[in-house]
Amino acid sequence: MTENGFLHHGKVLTLDSMNPNVKRVEYAVRGPIVQRAVQIEKELREGVKKPFTEVIKANIGDCHAMGQKPITFFRQVLALCSYPELLEDNKFPEDVKNRARRILQACAGGSIGSYSASQGIELIRNDVARYIERRDGGIPCSPDNIYLSAGASDGIMTMLKLLVSGEGSSRTGVMISIPQYPLYSAGLAELAAVQINYYLDEAKCWSLDVKELRRALEAARKHCRPRVLCIINPGNPTGQVQSRQCIEDVIKFAAEENLFLMADEVYQDNVYAEGCQFHSFKKVLFEMGPEYSEKVELVSFHSTSKCYMGECGFRGGYMEVVNLDPEVKVQLTKLVSVRLCPPVTGQALLDLVVNPPQPDEPSYATFIKERSHTLAMLAEKAKMTQDILNQVPGISCNPVQGAMYSFPSIQLPPKAIAEAKEKGQAPDMFYCMKLLEEKGICLVPGSGFGQRDGTFHFRSVMWILKVFFIKKLTAAPFGPVKTDSGSFVPIGRFH
Amino acid sequence: MTENGFLHHGKVLTLDSMNPNVKRVEYAVRGPIVQRAVQIEKELREGVKKPFTEVIKANIGDCHAMGQKPITFFRQVLALCSYPELLEDNKFPEDVKNRARRILQACAGGSIGSYSASQGIELIRNDVARYIERRDGGIPCSPDNIYLSAGASDGIMTMLKLLVSGEGSSRTGVMISIPQYPLYSAGLAELAAVQINYYLDEAKCWSLDVKELRRALEAARKHCRPRVLCIINPGNPTGQVQSRQCIEDVIKFAAEENLFLMADEVYQDNVYAEGCQFHSFKKVLFEMGPEYSEKVELVSFHSTSKCYMGECGFRGGYMEVVNLDPEVKVQLTKLVSVRLCPPVTGQALLDLVVNPPQPDEPSYATFIKERSHTLAMLAEKAKMTQDILNQVPGISCNPVQGAMYSFPSIQLPPKAIAEAKEKGQAPDMFYCMKLLEEKGICLVPGSGFGQRDGTFHFRSVMWILKVFFIKKLTAAPFGPVKTDSGSFVPIGRFH
Q1: Contact A93, B143 (CB under 8 A)
Q2: Does the distance separating the beta carbons of A340 and B30 come in below 8 Å?
Q3: Are B280 and B317 in contact (CB under 8 A)?
Q4: Which of B1, B122, B191, B359 could make an SS bond with B8 (beta carbons 3.0 to 4.6 A apart)?
């Protein structure tokens, strides 16, 4: 203690004194395994010898990082918006220039450096509304119901923030799928909401069964007030695409049980499997007639980060609210205004996504070529993923119908499970850590997404599943195993 | 009620059932007066006749919206980052190309469309650290202590989120100045933290007195646990610049009272008044010796939105944490990872701000010319603001030493106050609404920032204070008054 008498206090902000909700937050996609991967990359750069020369990051759907190319038209327009003097440059096509002018005119002072309206630039909200109407076969969409956001994550957190209230057994309960994308569990922990798990059926290609929703809901009613049902379609991390019937069943369930529906539809253009098709919750809701379409409260999220764009760094996105109470909408608008506005470059990019080059415009042919190429590559990888992974004894992988991930189950040897437990690690975390240390492959363990007790999985971004990857996978981390198809897998044996 | 038995439930999400903390949030800078201003703009476009032809928005520090020009170098580099094919274009100076290449190399896959590390791109955090060291005369700064953010607002909310805990009388109390920037009161309402008001001394040019801090702290200890002290320097909305002595006093106070210091220093380069100088809290802290510099926990915020850049739309910013508990830092890193990453274009812009063209580089001369011009314009407007406003009877305005606003006190006639009360409006809101409806000037009433009871103010962005503005102000909204200097002010009389 000093003469001032304050040094004995120690820190103001410590693990003990900090917000306990934040402490409970977990986010596996960027968790300990990714931090270790970054360290290993540093060690490699510093010349440390490893059994591999680079870390393969299959932990996150970061398209451009893995070599996916941006769409030329998008980037040209963004360059002109950044530096409008380029509008005088003859090397840019007319449609690129027109589009840049149109966006700049919608910005205060003609600059993307100005704040926009907190809900997003009006012109862009209009374009989003028209885009949704085209997608949904003409079902009307009002730009007043569109809120632009910094990626979908921002919108999801904003809606959860509005929805969570009450104390003790009347605290808001939010139903999320297991496996889930961990933004949901993290957001619910931060808000001290009650997480209600409903399980997807791995045996039926990760499909959703309303019986399971009902089971979860009824169990939860004993200790909280369930008010929200979150759906991810196409699924992350599970890659399933919901049938129209399933969506209708979910909507009926939400209506009957008075649940607010949150539909995470950021992978709506990432559908690969034959016979699968994306159906928006909004469209199905409106096709079910006024009894539902005038009643069920729904919010749907979309983003510029996935699909053929893959522009994660721009943090572009939007949400559409349907049947939101007008007074609550005022509150929502107020809430988003505190953060001033979503990044304007992300808004501009979103405008291009919802309003791409038209057939009579000079950039159209290149745009279509680039988009088709990227989508074809993604579809090919989706197919390859399931084919290759299922060749590996001990690994079992559902078809990747959509989105960008596979979530195979892995059989871990009892000795591996025992050693993991000794170390206080989840067995699949232990497995993924070994794979990282020995082979330089960075996957996210299934425990970060949730899984049925006693089962183990990992999530891998599908584009990583090239031959060299599968070779590494089959040689690690618990020693090779001879099988019919050659020198194979980690997983069957341990020591 | 229908046969399904659910329609009688009504909405899930209503004013009654929503998060009560969100309901308590207020954000005057984009509040009802601004919404009305947007409506009026629409009415004008639709041909509705008004006593004015355009709305002058003096509600927000939105530089480019008011005609401030972006820095050419910044926008050129950003254009090249967006569309790297321009690197082959001979029309761009070499330093622009080099800088774009350097940023792109630091992005995964060489694309600003990739996610960055959640804490921000390492190269840029390094550049920020070097910038802070130069600013603070060589006091060391570690890039590990730098977190990039989506504007300063994002960083401020993140830190408050970490800091708030406890229930009832042990709930975290956060000291904020009155007047304050309403992000703070909004953030505290959202987090259900206890807001502790300390008043700035209007009679002494809005200076901060430690005696007042102590009064506020002691009063607050009866009902909460005060743990955080927020300072805005230069002041928003009050425009004062703190003396070095004052900062030292504040740091001593924080040390004695065991408070975590949050220093909002986004206007650090907006200092105009002779004899005034910006002193960073970090520098003063380290000059006070190890007894303080090794103990006091501090976070400082900065942004690309103000100063000569004014690039609000890019949502660029950073915070530096000093003496943060290492375990808490792990938690902070985890928390920011849930939102994936700050917008990468904002990060790139920040890099250019902290690492501008050097004297031997081709873009240097233009950069200096543009920057000097903007800063000179801002300084001129600061001077003009106080000169002109103080000519108006009933308005009294402190010198604008820094930042971008004036916060004059206004004397409202008793009849105006009475009419406001009848309408259930704060009297200065009533005044500002009248000014908007009759003259098309959009100001934010002092009640949105906080003020001593019985006093009334408005905040005006200073660049708006041109001659035509003051003419409008003096002719409204309660009828002109003859004074020595001509036909003048609203404020002395009512009806």
Answers
A1: no
A2: yes
A3: no
A4: B1
Return the half-sphere exposure (C-beta side, CA atoms, 13 A cut-off) of residue B24.
14
Q: Do A297 and B12 lie within an 8 Å CB cutoff?
A: yes
- Residue A174, helix vs strand vs coil: strand
- In whole angstroms, what is the distance from residue A365 CA to residue B44 CA? 41
CATH number of A99-354: 3.40.640.10
- Residue B82 contacts A where some CB pair is shorter than 8 Å: yes
Sequence-separated (6 or more) residues with CB below 8 Å from residue B64: A107, A108, A109, A111, A113, A114, B70, B310, B311, B312, B313
Most B CBs within 10 A among A42, A78, A83, A251, hence the mutation to make, goes to A83
The backbone torsions φ and ψ at residue A173, rounded to the nearest 5 degrees and listed phi first, read -105, 140
Q: Report the chain A residue with the minimal C-alpha distance to residue B164.
A: A19
Residue A197 three-state SS: strand
How many angstroms separate the CA of residue A242 from the nearest CA in chain B? 24
Of A64, A401, A95, the closest CA to residue A232 belongs to A401
Tokens of A323: 């049947």
| Per-residue model confidence as pLDDT tens for chain B (495 residues) | 344 444 445 898 999 889 888 888 887 777 788 889 989 998 999 999 988 888 888 887 788 888 889 999 999 999 999 999 999 988 899 999 999 999 999 998 899 999 998 899 999 999 999 999 999 999 999 999 999 999 999 999 999 999 999 999 999 999 999 999 989 999 999 999 999 999 999 999 899 999 999 999 999 999 999 999 999 999 999 989 999 999 999 999 999 999 999 999 999 988 988 889 999 999 999 999 999 999 999 999 999 998 889 999 999 999 999 999 999 999 999 899 888 899 999 999 999 999 999 999 999 999 999 999 998 888 888 888 788 778 777 888 898 888 888 898 988 888 888 888 898 888 888 888 888 888 888 888 998 888 989 899 988 887 554 545 555 555 445 443 333 333 333 432 222
Tokens of A284: 């199905």
Inter-chain CB proximity B64 and A108 less than 8 Å: yes
- DSSP class of residue B194 equals E
Rounded Cα gap, residues A359 and A426, in angstroms: 53
φ, ψ for residue A314 (rounded to 5)?
-80, -15
Q: CA-CA distance, A256 to A240, in Å (whole number)?
A: 25
Burial class (CB in 10 A: 0-12, 13-18, 19+), A329: middle
Confirm or reject contact between A143 and chain B (CB < 8 A). no
Q: B319 and chain A: CB distance < 8 Å anywhere?
A: no
Is residue B324 within 8 angstroms of chain A, CB to CB?
Answer: yes
* Cα distance between the two ends of chain B: 55
Pick from B17, B23, B83 the residue to mutate for testing the A interface (most A CBs within 10 Å).
B83
Q: Map out the domains of chain A as residue ranges.
A: 20-66+372-488, 99-354
Q: How far apart are CA A61 and CA B108, in angstroms?
A: 12
A20-66+372-488 adopts what CATH topology? Aspartate Aminotransferase, domain 1 (3.90.1150)
Interface test with A, best of B63, B66, B114 (most A CBs within 10 A): B114
Which residue in chain B is spatially nearest to A311 when comparing CA positions?
B113
Would the CB atoms of A328 and B162 count as touching at under 8 Å?
A: no
Those residues with Cβ within 8 angstroms of residue A137's Cβ, 6 or more apart along the chain or in another chain: A283
Say if the Cβ atoms of B13 and A325 lie within 8 Å. Answer: yes
Are B20-66+369-488 and B99-354 the same fold in CATH?
Answer: no
- What fold is seen in the domain B20-66+369-488? Aspartate Aminotransferase, domain 1 (3.90.1150)
Residue that is written with structure tokens 């002058």 in the block: B56
Q: Which of B4, B29, B260 sits opposite A13 (nearest CB)?
A: B260
- A6–B255 CB contact, under 8 Å: yes
Q: Does A224 touch chain B (CB under 8 A)?
A: no
